[in-house]
Amino acid sequence: MHILLLSMPDSFEHMPPHAIRMPNGALTSLAGNVDPQHRVAVADLILVQRQVRETVTRLVRELDPEVVGLSIMTFQRRTAARIIELVRGLRPGVKIVVGGYDPSLAPEAYQEMDVDYLVRSEGEVTFRELVRAIESGSGAEGIRGLSYRCRSRNGDSWVHNPDRPPHRLEDSEIRPPNRDARVLKGYTLMGRQIDVIETSRGCTYDCSFCSIIEMRGRNFHTYPFDRVLADIRDARDHGARTIFLVDDNITLNVRRFEALCEAIIAAGLNKLDYFVQAMTSAIANHGETLAPLMRRAGFRYVFLGIENILEGDLEFLRAAAKNTERTNGHNTGNATLKAIDYLHRNQMYVVGGLIVGSPGDTRESIEANLEFARRYVDWPYIQHPTPYPRTPMTKEFRDQGLIMSERLEEYDGTTAVVRTEHLPAEEVEFMRWRAERWMKIHHIPAVIKHDPGFVLIQGWKMFAHTFRGSSVRSALGLESEKKVFDRYRAIRRQEREYV
Ligand code: B12
Ligand code: SF4
Predict the structure, then answer these.
(1) Whole-prediction pTM value?
(2) Neighbour count for residue 382 (Cβ, 10 Å)
(3) Which residues form ligand 2's pocket by a CB distance below 6 Å?
């Protein structure tokens, strides 16, 4: 059978598409896990963000797929609905399958769309079995983790098969990704081709804003190192020079992470640049040995889940435990500064993941976090709390009547869709936007040092993107920042029309 897998084109403020275009790891993993007789094409639509309709139309005509699968996050739901309509119009009999975080956590939203199947949570084995069932014409009754539409004269109904438990990853049932399936080109992280690798799945924490616990429960499973190293080699052989480890929480097992760094060095794969997401507590508590190893293995940017520097907000976000430093078995305060220090001493850059706009936040508490970011992080990744389906935080915001927008396309993390008890949503977003633009500019010299060619060619675009909404008048101080912010928001609204 011919299968076309699509990831959505929607991007958000911290991922300007002229500088950052990452592959979706789920799709190549699915492609690697269907039976070999099928012809699979993977298209990451971020690569053609302004030609989505033409590209999907061309691919559907050229490939003539029997199955089309879409990978969807919540803020991409509206775009997904439009693409589903487009595909259905082009090929009415095609089987449409949706998967990823949004279909898994809000399946009811997809029952109203013209979708045939919905894969909940991990997809490789469920999708493999589904494709077999479609090919052989057998029923989908026994496929765990699958929901499907039953069409009948009396109207449609949906069947939800029992859940599929998370895979343990230790055997080879989940086969490696198939990168040859990609049919579009142009992945980049500031001029260097980037690819994504998984070494583990899951997390045992339960931060109130994170979708992962509802998605797969609290657990942590790991791939064997030989598979991980082979995957990195495969990414490199496909042209990658930068690798993003997309594990939910790789620092849950620090000893394993250290061993992984050693394995990367021993395999000679440390000439590549690595990006990773990490907990501050793990870096602070083990930085003495871990940070130098990470540096030697090629780690360059570390996304630190700082979340907030104020204890009250950390409580609300349920993120206090992962930000706590421990000495001699005792909690000794916030781990953030120590973690940052270890990373900086080992020539790594800190991408500061902060969340501002929790219910109790005031102007002062937000400013304290912004000031912290200005002083200590190299690249700000500041977001607003966003009520994604079924997270504990969503319930709290709803109960308190603080959700100000139900337009899901705005749920991209940098559009404030909730207010605090003290500040309107727009004010929270304004404060973050105003501060963050200048923080990004401060990091440009480090980017020039590493990738001068990219900055020479693309630098002005990065600058224009960061300061979109500004004008000559605003640069001369003849226009208020609020006016520029309003223009920026209007531009952002237009940008969200991808199809
Ligand atoms: C890596 C990552 C990123 C990376 C890379 C994204 C990329 N191109 O792949 C970066 C840093 C760029 C990123 C950015 C964002 N991310 Co992100 N990201 C993740 C993370 C950590 C891992 C995702 C991953 O690759 N997993 C590995 C793959 C193999 O697993 P998977 O995606 O779950 O796919 C499996 C199943 O879902 C399913 N599946 C998925 N798609 C499909 C499709 C079909 C047809 C089928 C059958 C099955 C299927 O099968 C797959 C294999 O088992 C997750 C989870 C987490 N703990 O935080 C968040 C997560 C997905 N991100 C999230 C969000 C919100 C964002 C942002 C909007 C804002 C932000 N928080 O940074 C931006 C927007 C990105 C953009 N498009 O501009 C949310 C999504 C919430 C939601 N309900 O939609 C998550 C869950 C984190 C959270 N806050 O809880 N992200
Ligand atoms: S530590 Fe990270 S992955 Fe784990 S629950 Fe918190 S935000 Fe999610």
Answers:
(1) 0.97
(2) 26
(3) 203, 205-207, 210, 212, 248-249, 279, 305, 322
